[in-house]
Design a protein that fits this description.
Length: about 290
């Protein structure tokens, strides 16, 4: 039942070690979060490893999220003094928007360096995030790869490069990939539905049923339109609703295939924007770490 995930301790230790090394080279860490699950896509280790280095949340997939909840998350982060921005990383996103967020955070540090007679230099950053959250997309938007290689610098692990985003910003070319947290089945369901974990480790029908339990209210209209459902269909149990959708998409009784279709439709925004982690949930829980 549900999502069964094994992260190999050796891989985790290596990923952490590499990220720790990278953090020591930068001024700021960009933690990439999925705007649909800002909390569930956070890695609990990132803040600890980043130590006193500033930390910017870049919430991707804003175009696929519920806009009202995205604004609530931004307000929440602002209220606790945590720099954050939400973007559609595929289109409306670039270096200037990042610089306008990080300049105020780092200007004192850079000014202090200049006062000591050090040469003016670009801000250096590294990204980190769970699989599939949009790390490469963010990097590619910030960097023109062909023109971007700044060359090897001391301290950078062999094979890694600084990429130039502008005269004022350089990024390490290898984002850290850390595992998501699996404290509960609910978090695992959210990660599966949004695509942060591989299809081979969960059963599509479990995730489709989870999606229906979430969306029958929040994406009622999207579901009704996409699968030509009537109001009375929404009185069915999740299982019967899934069977009904299976018929509606012409898959007879192949509910596994219909589940895959439903998951794909949700991920690509065809049912409407959704957010599965709410600020209210956070405030209710004792999750004081965030
Ligand atoms: P990575 O594994 O973290 O490097 O993730 P990728 O950058 O490869 O992105 C994973 C998928 O999410 C790709 O299909 C991207 O096109 C898509 N993606 C990334 N950012 C966004 C976004 O802001 N909006 C939408 N709609 N898709 C995005």
């Amino acid at each position: 039942m549900g999502v069964n995930i094994q992260w190999f301790p050796g891989h985790m230790a290596k990923a952490i070690r590499q990220f720790e090394e990278n953090v020591s080279l930068v001024d700021i860490v960009f933690e990439i979060l999925d705007a649909r699950i800002p909390l569930s896509s956070m890695n609990p280790e990132v803040k600890r490893i980043s130590g006193d280095k500033p930390h910017l949340y870049i919430m991707t997939k804003r175009d696929l999220a519920d806009e009202k909840q995205t604004r609530e998350w931004l307000e929440y982060f602002d209220s606790i003094g945590q720099p954050a921005m939400a973007v559609d990383a595929k289109t409306k996103f670039g270096t200037n928007s990042v610089l306008s967020k990080i300049n105020p955070i780092l200007k004192d540090k850079l000014a202090r360096e200049e006062a000591k007679g050090m040469k003016s230099r670009p801000i250096r950053a590294v990204s980190v995030g769970v699989p599939n959250v949009g790390k490469s997309t963010v990097l590619n938007r910030l960097v023109n790869r062909r023109a971007a290689q700044v060359g090897n610098r001391p301290g950078v692990t062999k094979g890694q490069q600084w990429l130039k985003s502008s005269e004022k910003l350089e990024l390490l070319d290898t984002p850290g990939i850390l595992w998501p947290k699996f404290q509960s089945q609910e978090i695992a369901n959210k990660l599966a539905l949004t695509g942060a974990i591989k299809e081979s480790v969960y059963s599509s029908d479990d995730i489709a049923l989870y999606a229906l339990s979430q969306f029958r209210t929040s994406l009622h209209q999207g579901l009704a339109e996409r699968y030509r459902l009537s109001e009375s269909d929404f009185e069915l149990s999740d299982v019967d609703l899934l069977l009904k959708i299976t018929k509606q998409v012409g898959m007879q009784d192949d509910y596994m295939r219909a589940s895959d279709r439903l998951i794909q439709d949700a991920r690509s925004g065809k049912l409407g924007g959704f957010t599965l982690d709410s600020v209210a949930d956070l405030e209710e829980s004792d999750n004081a770490d965030y």
